Amino acid sequence: MIWAIAATVLAGLATVVGGLLALHPGMRQRGPLAFGLAFAAGLMIVLSVVEILPLSLSTLRDSGVGRPLWWTAGAFAVGCALVVLIDAVLPEPAATSGAAGVDAGDGGGGGLGLQDNPRLRRSGLLIALVIGAHNAPEGLMTFLTMLESPELGVGLAVAIAIHNVPEGMAVAAPVFAATGRRGTAILWATVAGLAEPVGALAGYFVLRAVLPPELLVLTLALVAGMMIALSLRELIPAARRYQTHPAQSLVGLAAGAVVVWTSLALT
Question: Which residues span the membrane (predicted)?
Answer without folding.
Answer: 6-23, 35-57, 69-90, 125-147, 153-178, 185-209, 215-235, 247-266
